[in-house]
Each structure stands twice: as C-alpha cells, then as structure tokens.
Amino acid sequence: MSKDDSESKGFNWNLVALGILLIAYLFSAGRFFIYSATHSDDGDNKIVRVAHWQLEPGYREALEWAMNEYNNLPHVKEAGITVTQMALPTRVYPQFMNVHLISGTAPDIAAAGMSTIIEGSSIARFYASLGEYVKEPNPYNSREYTDPEMEEELREYLAVSPWKETFLDGMEGGWKGELNDYYSVPVSSFGSVRMFYNTKLVNEAKEYILANIDKKPQPEWLQQVWINDVDGEVTGYLPDNERLRTWLDKADVPPETLGQFILFCFAIEEMAIEKDRSTLTPISVGNYAIGDPIYRYQISFFRHLGNNQIEQNGSPGISGLEAMDALHRGAWTFQDEPIIEFVKLAKLFSSFYPAGYMGLDREQVQRRFVSGDAAVFASGGWDAAGVYKGSQESEDPSKRFQVQIKPVPTPAPDERWADMLYYLPSEANFKAGVPLAVNKQSRNFDWSLDFLKFLSSQPINEEFNRRAAWLPAALGAKPVESMVEFSPIIEGYPGEMTFNPTNSRAPIRSKWQGDFKLMVTGEMSYEDFSNGFMEFLENPYQGMQGYWYQDRQNARDRTRALDRNLSVEEFFAAKDHDSKVANRFQSLFYQSLGSDEGVMLDLIWSRLHPGEPFPDID
Fold first, then answer.
1. Stated pTM of the model
2. What's the start-to-end Cα distance of the chain, in Å?
3. Arithmetic mean of pLDDT over the chain
C-alpha cells in the first residue's frame, strides 16, 4: 500500500459532511437574521407585510400601486404604517409559510393556501377569523371614496351594507365551511377557462377553407367534415349551410359552434402540411389538465349516464363513490352511447394536439401559442396578461398577432352531438379568488384588516384588477375590457348534477386518467381500457371495496377529529372567556351534532346492496 493510499484511507470524510452542515446552518441562520432585521418594525414605523405567490405579469405592480395608495392616506401616514409585499415563487412559498407560521415570524397577511399545515380546520390555528368584522360596512366603500357618477342606488348600497355583502360572491371565497366562519378576503377572480385564438391564423384558416370548399371534388379532409348518415351510422360533424358560409365571410371571428371549431382545426392541420410548417398545430395542449378542452365536455356527456340509477342518497349532486359503484353494479356501462360518443370526441380532439403533448408543461404550451405555432390555447384569466403581452413581443412584426377570447363552443342544433351537448355546466356558482388571510400572531392586526378593507373596496378593487388584468371581486367594480370574456356564464345546468370521474378516490382517479390518455392517443384499445378499469374495480384495496371502506373510515375520522377540536375549544372558552373562541366552539358543536360517523354510508350501502355485509379490507 502506497503512502498516498494510507493517507487517503486515514482521512475522515465525516468531518467534511459536518463542515457542510455547519456552513448550511450558519447561512440559514444568517438569512433568517437578515430577514428579521429588514422586516421588523422600525421605531415608530410599523411594517405590514403581505406574502403571496402570484408572479403573473401585472399582479405585483398592481398590488404595489394599491399599497402606495394606502400608505399615502393621511391617517395611515400619521400612524406610521407602511404596507409592503413579499412575492415568492410557488416552489418556495409552502415551506416558507410552514416555517414562519410555526416560528411566529410569518407575514401579517398571506395568500391562503399552499401550506400543508393549514389545510381544513387547521387554518384557525394560524389565521384570524373575520366573522365579527365582515358584518360591519367597509369604511372605504363610503360615499367619500366611491365615484359620484356611479349609479346612486348601488353607491348607497355599498356605503351601508355589511362588508361581506359588497363582494360579487357574497365573500364565499373567504368562507370556511368546516369552521363556519370567514378566514380570508378574496380580492380578485381568475374567471373561467376560455379558448384563446390566434386571429391571424383564424383568418388564414377561413381563406384556406373557402379556397377548398368549392373544389370539385373536394379534398378528402374536407369531405370527412360534412355530416352523413351511412347505413344508420352518423359520420361527420356539421352541414355545409348558410350559417357556415356566413361565419367564413366574417373577418377576425373565431369559430362560433363546435362543428365550425372542428372544421377550423382540420384546416389548420392541412395548412401546416401544405405549407410545410411542421411546428404548427391546431391546439396547444400539454399535461396541464385545465388546458385540455376535452374535459370541458366530459361532464356534459356523463350527465346522460343513467343518472336516475346513480343518484341514490337523495342529496344534490353525484359523488365519485355513487358513480363508480353504479358502474361496478351495471347501472351504466362502457357500452353506453354517451361515453362512447365522448371517447370519439376526445380522440378527435387529441388528433389536433402536438405530438408527445403529454410531455409538455404549462409554460411550453403557452410559449407555443404566443410564438404563433398554435391556433388555439385553452386557459383561465390568470394567463391572459402573459398571452396578450407575448403575442406582441416578437422582434419580427409579421409574427405578431391579435388574440380573441371565446368560451368553449357547443354544437348548433343540426351539428354532431347537439343532442348531448346542448348545454355546458353553468358557471354561476363561481367564487372570487386570491384570498388573503391575516396572521393570528400579527402585531398589526387592526392595520392588516384595514388594508384588506381598502384593497377590497369598490374603487380600489376596480383599479387594482384593471392594472393586474384580472377580474375584480368587489360588487360594482368594472372589469378591464380584456377580461370581460372571462366573466362567468350563468346559463347551463348545475355541474354538480352529473359526475366527474377525476373526483373519485385517488387510486381510481389515477387509473382512469392514466389509461384514458393512453386510450385516446391510440396506445390502448377501448376494449382494453374498459376491461382493465372494470378489473381494477375488483381490487379489494384500490377498487370499490376499498372505496366504500375508506370513505366510511374517513367519515368516522372526521367526526372524531371534530370532537377532539371541540374539546380543545371548550377548554379555551372556559379558560379565556374569548368571544371568538366561544363562537368557534358553538360552530363546532353544531357540526358535531350533524356528523354521522359514516352512518349515512351504511344506509346507502344497505339500499344499493341489500343483504350484503359492508366492505371490510382487514
């Protein structure tokens, strides 16, 4: 053995690891010291910190504007109050909040959510309940602040109504049902998912269709679009009629019906081949489910799947358990027309997606659209500002384009699937979002609450969301023009009256989502998909037996957790005589009375499966 080898073997690498840990600790402690020093109150000045993860274009600038407006109010300046923001990436935010909420150093105001330690009823441990404050009028909605040109009746209503009644959703976005109280203040709304269209490609596709529609014979791709009845089987998607010709003659107008949308996608696909534009695709889609337009149609098809057999417990809506049990016992099957037709539409749509689309993330999907390599992109209002900006950023002026926003199209009465898609789910039950909660340990609680009142007031909320290019949450606040199309559509039927397979228990949801994607892309046959799923439901742990057992166990666990929380709140109510604690105790007590420890599931099981013992997986 050489001398070098001997020295190498004698070296203690544990000391290196210890040194790295020590350096990491000192770095972390230093960062925490700097953070505490730079974010603490400064003498007579009090700093109110607002933490959030909204890094979309415009939001931070809009929030900075609102903070500056508030900081410059005479009574705020006199009190030495300064409101500042801390914008954190979504990857950092959960851990940041977990650490600082536990250590008592969390910001005064924070965007509710993301943090695992404040899920469900645990939010009351770290954030203040606001129920006693939302019943009083918002002083920043008084006539002193609102626009004199506003409708007089609305202006008076805002001035005298309880704060919670001045929100578009009645402040439901800040309500916690399990705690029976308000725990956050919503300040914006993203709106619903819409279709973004490249107007330049819309016009190009229309010209391409018109150039081919009068050819004799028509190209094969165009012939397969027209509705035909061949031996009792309907093919095609729309008729060549006056309505279609009228749309084709309109410049800058995206497809108005589902049939026109399908024709448009076929045209984009053929244009890409003919003009050798290999990167051009009709619809930009990735692994981000919200951006896949096919799911906007799913529950509309599924509402036809024997709902009279699925709805068994008399309560509104259809749970995943009820729907999957109905499939398991044959109340509906994979051979039913609605699901077969949905699969046909899903396969058609997927043929318009980019190759390997399941490997594309949200940013890649959006980048493809703003670069002009996709005609359509589906998303919500949170992406609107970035898309509008990106579509105008190309250094080549010829590649810039205008964006049109439209709802997901439905078929006209004489188009394919009109008998099943005459309505999409209503969006009337929307809730305002971006809820901001007040840290229970904040030393500046009153000023934190005051700032949230200011931010949610009609005049400030309108301007704040205009700058952020989002929808306002305050009643009477007008949305910026670019966001009008994201406003909720109240027509349609309640989405709760059907079922969504992805709302089922995790193993079943994963099986459905994974195999469904393989099936629509042609990597799995429909027969293998349906047979495989039915076999999976027979699995005693992950299938229906485990579903029933786990749902009842969860109901029992919730009841017991509720009773434990009730005991804690009862102790604090007796000890501190705090009205807030007493209110929480009363709320938990009423919830405890209504909790059934899974008895309702036992009753449903006995009605659906008479004479059979309740499933057990022990």
1. 0.78
2. 60
3. 85
